[in-house]
Amino acid sequence: METAPREPAETATYTPHPGRPAVPLYRAPYDWPAIEESVRTVGAAIVPGLVARSLVDDFNRELDAWLQDNPRTTGSDTGSQLYDKFLGRKTLRLHGVPGKIQASHPLIAHAEIVASMRRMLGHWSNEILLSLAELIQIGPRESAQLIHRDTGSWWPHLPREEHPWNVTAMIALTPFTEETGATRVVPGSCQWPLGERPRMDQISRAVMEPGDALLFRGDVLHGGGANKTKDQARRGLALSYCAGWLRPVDNNMLAVPPKKAAALGDDLLALLGYVAHDATRVDGGLVGMYDNGDPLKALRRGDFA
Q: Are 167 and 151 in contact (CB under 8 A)?
């Protein structure tokens, strides 16, 4: 049975500079097969309006209150000047977000995002895990971040395959403009040799409004843009998901310990690692067990109280 050809994705919104490659843009109603094909082949796709503005407002409001009660400075102190520069000396980063900001939970477990992640990572895994929930707030006059691949967090030489090992949804919480530091993406670089570096004319910008999402596979070259403003911060929430048997970047079971986890729903807990990964249906085994059993059942029984 023949299927009707899909309308080509829009691209002009993302690259105001003639001649630069563009990240495909898909407006509602969302064509998820086309979006996921773009992520698989081009490396990224932008989905305007994916997250309701009310959820963005709730998150920003709770985050602002949390930061007021728990002041954080910009920059990092890792002991490595090179890595501190990579993270951004004028960038505020917050990890362990699901244990700090309750309004992050409906974003992490967003039905359309999670369903898409399951499909894109399904080649490798029955289930998926939240690898990272990171608040990234690029401050005024911050320099551009080093272009990089997220898969380097596991192993710089992790094989790059047709299907991604991990995929990130970068949700814009404030406007992403070229002036405030919209994420830079190198379309097609997921297929490049490992050591190849991009020219300036190969780098696109993910210009977005609050609630828009940039979906990108972990082995596509990308990085935060330079914030050229004097008084505007660019705020985004990076939600990265990985195959259910791959160790997450963040230890989410420490970020959300059992005492807090007991009050959360099963779907969110599965993403945080409170469910064993079962590969028996493909002649595999189980990983992530507790006392040779299901950690979620143990949590519900009160074993960790």
A: no
Q: pTM of the full predicted structure?
A: 0.91
DSSP lists the bridge partners of residue 216 as 44, 168
- For the four alpha carbons of 122, 124, 127 and 128, in that order, the dihedral sign comes to negative
Encode pLDDT of 60-84 as tens digits: 999 999 999 998 878 787 778 877 7
Q: Using an 8 Å Cβ cutoff, are 78 and 129 in contact?
A: no
Q: Find the largest Cα–Cα distance for the chain.
A: 60
- Other CB atoms within a 10 A radius of the CB of residue 61 amount to 12
Residue bearing tokens 């939970």: 105
- The model's confidence at residue 125, banded by pLDDT at 50, 70 and 90, is very high
DSSP H helices in 53-158: 53-69, 81-87, 97-100, 105-108, 111-121
Look over the chain and give the mean of its residue pLDDT values, rounded to a whole number: 91
Q: Are 230 and 179 in contact (CB under 8 A)?
A: no
Phi-psi group of 208: left, alpha or beta (phi > 0 → left; psi -120 to 50 → alpha; rest → beta): beta
Taking a C-beta distance cutoff of 8 angstroms, is the pair 248, 80 a contact? Answer: no
Single-letter code of the amino acid located at 241: Y
pLDDT of residue 10: 57
Rounded CA gap, 11 and 204, in Å? 10
Residue showing tokens 């960790």: 304
Q: Which residue has the tokens 């990234």?
A: 136
Q: What angle do CA 284, 290, 292 make, to 5 degrees?
A: 60
Model confidence pLDDT, tens digit, residues 240-258 = 999 999 999 999 999 999 9
Give yes or no for a contact between 75 and 84, defined as CB atoms under 8 angstroms apart: yes
